[in-house]
Amino acid sequence: MRWGCPEIVKYQSLLNSLQNEDYTIYAANVKEKIDLVTFKDSPSDKFQVTQAILTIENPLYETYNLLNHISLWIKSKYKDWGKNLKIEKEDGSIVSSASIHIASHSRFMHLNKVYISPSLIIQITDKDKLLVTMMNLIYNNNEYIGSDKKPTTFVAKVSDVYPFTSKGGYKNTYAKAYVSTYQFFWSFISDLCNELNANFTKDPKMLNKLHYEYSKDSLKAKYGEPTKVIADQTSTPDINKELHFYETAQKFVFMGKTIDFQDIISCEIVDDPQYIPGRSTTLGAGLCIFGFGLGGAETVRTPDKTIHNYVVNIKIDNLATPLIRIGTGQNEYKATEIASTFEYILRHQHKETRKPKVVSRNKKK
Questions:
Q1: Which of 181, 206, 210 minimizes the C-alpha distance to 114?
Q2: Burial of 339: CB neighbours in 10 Å, binned 0-12, 13-18, 19+
Q3: String of DSSP letters for 309-357
Q4: What secondary structure does DSSP assign to 241-275, as a single string?
Q5: What is residue 302's DSSP assignment?
Q6: Which residues of 301-325 are buried (b: 16+ CB within 10 A; e: fewer)?
Q7: Could you tell me if 346 and 359 are in contact, meaning their C-beta atoms sit under 8 angstroms apart?
Q8: Nearest Cα to 308, choosing from 294, 278, 328?
Q9: pLDDT tens digits, residue range 12-28?
């Protein structure tokens, strides 16, 4: 399962095939194959627009996970776009704009550096499609003369400088920027596709979720609907951190082990607390000159503190698994919920000779 975009090879090969040492001819060749775009609200303006659709078969990802991965990659590799980047959760898109150096051109004693300010939109259109759109309207031409480090900046629209064959001092500069803009756009899309294939062919969080659902369905097929499930409160569901009780099948499942109700011998809650004594701190010792003290000091004492650490121990009549320890940390309620469930099982065991034994005790400090 790979992300694919046939247009990448098509347009990168096209740009290479149209090369010419004279950039005005090179730009004219590109214009013949890739049209400029106009919009209804600004018919006089012409935009350089590049669009591509990346697709993947059998997508295994959550929308936000994909957008977040792409945004982090942009911020690390394309830092100019990363500065103004935003994730639009409702639209399932990433938007950004930036000032990007796109071309340099020397002529006589002058050096011209051209920057573009393109907009970037990356949007999930379907679960298996990622639409990438980049648009550029203007060139910022910074001209350096001689050793002067302060450039003079000229702003020109693409529609005003094309076709680059008319007489003018910057025709080669803008022609080079014209070609380089398309090269940059397709290079970005190619890098994005490679990144997704290298690091996001499958979303690990989604795979964990699918594994969790599969494990639940497998247990349901064996033992029916669980009578009770006690789960650890985590952002990522994990079947190994849950206790599944099946009263009809008389079994419970924990950490991949299935135990019969009748094999439960006893259950107890143990609290192994950590005692942290309070400390005394003196604040404001005052000023002392020649043995005479000015001002006063104040002593502040922090209270003693006890950090609880609850563990539920379940003894099992099974040589392979004689003891199960379930730690709940400071969560006494969760420990009590687990112990109460096993107490219920012990009271209702089918073996009449076995007596329930549930103990709650604290270790002495």
A1: 181
A2: buried
A3: -EEEEEEES-SSS-EEEEEEET-HHHHHHHHHHHHHHHHT-S-TTPPP-
A4: GEEEEETTTTEEEETTEEEEGGGEEEEEEEE--EE
A5: P
A6: eeeeeeeeebebebebeeeeeeebe
A7: no
A8: 328
A9: 999 999 999 999 999 99
Using CB atoms within 10 Å of the CB of residue 243, give its burial: 0 to 12 exposed, 13 to 18 middle, 19+ buried: buried
| Angstrom distance (rounded) from CA 313 to CA 38 | 72
Q: Vertex 53, ends 49 and 54: CA angle to 5°?
A: 135
DSSP-based three-state secondary structure for 286: coil
Q: Are 227 and 245 in contact (CB under 8 A)?
A: yes
* 308: amino acid identity, one letter: H
User: In the predicted model, what is the mean pLDDT of the chain?
Assistant: 86
What is the phi/psi pair of residue 160, to 5°?
-85, -25
* Spatial separation of the C-alpha atoms in residues 321 and 259, rounded to whole Å: 9
The two three-digit tokens of residue 277, written as one number: 């004594």
Query: What DSSP state is assigned to residue 132?
Result: E
> And the tokens for 264?
């439960």
Q: Please list, residue by residue across 267-296, b when 16 or more beta carbons sit within 10 angstroms of its beta carbon and e when fewer do.
A: bbbbbeeeeeeeeeeeeeeeeeeeeeeeee
Residue with tokens 């007596």: 355
1-4 long-range Cβ contacts below 8 angstroms, 24+ apart: 1/56, 1/57, 1/58, 1/59, 1/60, 1/201, 1/202, 2/56, 2/57, 2/197, 2/201, 3/54, 3/55, 3/56, 3/130, 3/193, 3/196, 3/197, 3/200, 3/201, 4/54, 4/55, 4/56, 4/193
Q: Tokens 């010792």 — which residue?
A: 285
Tens of pLDDT, residue by residue over 308-340, are 888 899 999 988 889 989 888 888 898 999 999
20 backbone dihedrals φ, ψ, rounded to 5°? -150, 145
pLDDT score at 280: 65
Provide the residue count of the chain.
365
